[in-house]
Amino acid sequence: xxxxxxxxxxxxxxxxxxxxxxxxxxxxxxxxxxxxxxxxxxxxxxxxxxxxxxxxxxxxxxxxxxxxxxxxxxxxxxxxxxxxxxxxxxxxxxxxxxxxxxxxxxxxxxxxxxxxxxxxxxxxxxxxxxxxxxxxxxxxxxxxxxxxxxxxxxxxxxxxxxxxxxxxxxxxxxxxxxxxxxxxxxxxxxxxxxxxxxxxxxxxxxxxxxxxxxxxxxxxxxxxxxxxxxxxxxxxxxxxxxxxxxxxxxxxxxxxxxxxxxxxxxxxxxxxxxxxxxxxxxxxxxxxxxxxxxxxxxxxxxxxxxxxxxxxxxxxxxxxxxxxxxxxxxxxxxxxxxxxxxxxxxxxxxxxxxxxxxxxxxxxxxxxxxxxxxxxxxxxxxxxxxxxxxxxxxx
Length: 395
Description:
Helices cover 46% and strands 13% of the residues. It is α+β, with helices and mostly antiparallel strands. Strands 1-4-5-8 form a four-stranded mixed beta sheet. It has a four-stranded antiparallel beta sheet with strand order 2-3-7-6, with no helix packed on it. A two-stranded antiparallel ribbon has the order 9-10. α7 packs antiparallel against α8, α8 runs antiparallel to α9 and α9 runs antiparallel to α10. The longest helix is centred in the last third of the chain and has 29 residues, at 284-312. The chain starts with 7 loop residues before the first helix and ends in a 5-residue tail after the last helix. The model has no long low-confidence stretch (mean pLDDT 91).
């Protein structure tokens, strides 16, 4: 049953579904969190982002003076994310929404006035400059340094960031850098607005197994930031990062919708693929495996809904988000792995091959699925959090 069925939220869902059908970009959307492939797709993404904000489907939780709705229902944000996923439309860039959350919560009025309107209009895309080669899941170990230039001066930044989605398209970056090397590692980090066009900023797209470049390396060599680039106070970066990330809960429901669509696709393709002269779906072992995966998706949906509702009701626990993330990412990988097994030799055929099943969607889904088990905290980190904070097990 859909969230909000039988309530006014059901009518809101119908409105969102119609809006998405009428306004979403028409280009192919691949598995996972992906960057535009070319300038045309980037312009489509900008226009799509602007449409969602203008309609009040994004940014409704912002303060009213910056375009938010005073009577916003947080569950509406969940519905919007679910319907975008259901339509297989691109999600607006998360880097922009994370930066907006940081600026709304900790930025100056001048920073808000300068940056929030272009985020809403789609004019400025932001990227998230958090992860580093030796600081991914353990973000507090980051080494990028920002050195203060003196009284009233700016900052000089040196370091490297990695796995930066949309780095090649972003106008600004939401940057975390170490400003006090002598403080405990969680205490000496600060948050900054980084103009990606500044001298010393080098973006190098990474070519991935999927054949696309969705992530980037970003090199920062003696980059001079003005004093007003600092968000909040020096040393407040860890608090700001956690606060902005905590606002991004809507994607949990969207992830479940993607799993539901994957099971539907699996059933469709199992009807088309033949094993020993019969449709794969006519074989008992295939039906049982798909049924098992479908049951796990239903369980994931219940877990995700409980996590979301618990968070909104103020009764969430430290393990809710890790459990939902772990369940989704591992199940998503198993579905893609089984799909390739089912396709047999045809599973190696990629997009563009005329004989590829479902235009090579399953190969792309499989190649990207492993990233979900790493991004946002690896499965190993999620299990440690659940064990230590949920079960009270020793470190």
